[in-house]
Design a protein that fits this description.
By secondary structure, the chain is of the alpha+beta class. The termini are far apart. It contains 10 helices and 9 strands. Strands 3, 4, 5, 6, 7, 8 and 9 form a 7-stranded mixed beta sheet that branches. The protein has a two-stranded antiparallel ribbon with strand order 1-2. It has 3 domains: 80 residues, Winged helix-like DNA-binding domain superfamily/Winged helix DNA-binding domain (Arc Repressor Mutant, subunit A); 102 residues, Periplasmic binding protein-like II (D-Maltodextrin-Binding Protein, domain 2), CATH 3.40.190.10; 101 residues, D-Maltodextrin-Binding Protein, domain 2, CATH 3.40.190. It is 40% helix and 18% strand.
């Protein structure tokens, strides 16, 4: 039996995302190609790695053991590659940095100049993806660090998590709506709250904060970006929560009104995470300090 590191990374991505399609996106290959590679491993092993479920995939008992062993192999291989490529805790290749979509367009213009100035000699490749795909990419070595808006998962790769800063939420409404301030989340009609589509952690945070009990998957509207939601809000077609870091970009439309929330409000904590075994930890700690120092000023 000959298994490649790439095949192990594919299997790990499926285990981390729980879904063949999302794993393929995280690995930048087509879903049929990834599925074929998993089937090849299963053929070599003589048993299934994953139970194929209606909503995704779950490791079989054998698959769980395979994934655990493959993760150790990949961590060792990545550490050896990093050791061979660089010294002194600095990579001699671009540092691969991922961010979630509800952070990237608002924070990157602030932090990227600071990162390039504060870490001279280090180049960056920057990508944007949802949290589960970023975690999968950390696990399989596709990313060195990720900026996320949730707690680091307690499953999957062992991660180092460094808090950056808190990002409170506010309410956005049409300026034509009479809204008493501050706004109580309990007073909002769940049917009027506009959400991002499934897979965004900000969607889940909004559902939790607003205590939306009805099945959100049955809604006819789900946006791919906050900019799309804001346009609907400006036209009086609903209301939405917005993270504070988005206000300088998303609250410039004069048709939009921004309202504070009553205590305790809602929000998220942004964190920089990387794999525990990452040999560039000193550089990533410096990244953390630079991002904290360039925290955006509220609009």
């Amino acid at each position: 039996m000959q298994l490649s590191l790439k095949q192990m990374r594919y299997a790990l991505a499926v285990a981390e995302t729980g879904h063949f399609g999302r794993a393929a996106a995280a690995c930048n290959i087509s879903q049929p190609a990834l599925s074929q590679q998993i089937q090849t491993i299963e053929h070599e092993c003589g048993t299934l790695l994953f139970d194929r479920l209606k909503g995704g995939a779950r490791p079989t008992p054998f698959g769980s053991e395979f994934i655990a062993r493959a993760r150790l192999v990949l961590e060792t291989a990545d550490a050896l590659e990093a050791f061979a490529q660089g010294s002194g805790g600095q990579p001699n290749r671009p540092l691969r940095f991922g961010l979630i979509p509800t952070v990237a367009p608002y924070l990157l213009p602030e932090i990227f100049p600071a990162l390039t100035a504060g870490l001279p000699g280090i180049e960056f490749t920057v990508s944007e993806n949802r949290t589960d795909a970023l975690i999968a990419a950390l696990a399989d070595g596709g990313l060195d660090a990720a900026l996320i808006g949730t707690d680091a998962p307690d499953h999957g790769p062992r991660l180092v998590s460094r808090p950056l800063f808190d990002d409170p939420f506010v309410l956005a409404t049409s300026r034509l709506e009479a809204t008493a301030e501050p706004v109580s989340l309990a007073s909002l009609s769940p049917d009027r709250i506009l959400l991002l589509d499934e897979g965004h952690c900000f969607r889940d945070q909004t559902i939790a904060a607003c205590r939306i009990d009805s099945d959100p998957s049955t809604r006819t509207f789900a946006a791919t970006s906050l900019s799309t939601i804001v346009e609907f809000v400006a036209n009086g077609q609903g209301v939405t929560l917005l993270p504070q870091i988005a206000l300088r970009k998303e609250a410039t439309d004069p048709r939009i009104a921004i309202h504070p929330l009553t205590s305790p409000g809602a929000g998220r904590r942004l964190s920089l995470v990387w794999r525990e075994a990452n040999p560039f930890a000193a550089t990533l700690e410096k990244m953390t300090e630079l991002i904290r120092a360039t925290r955006p000023v509220a609009a």
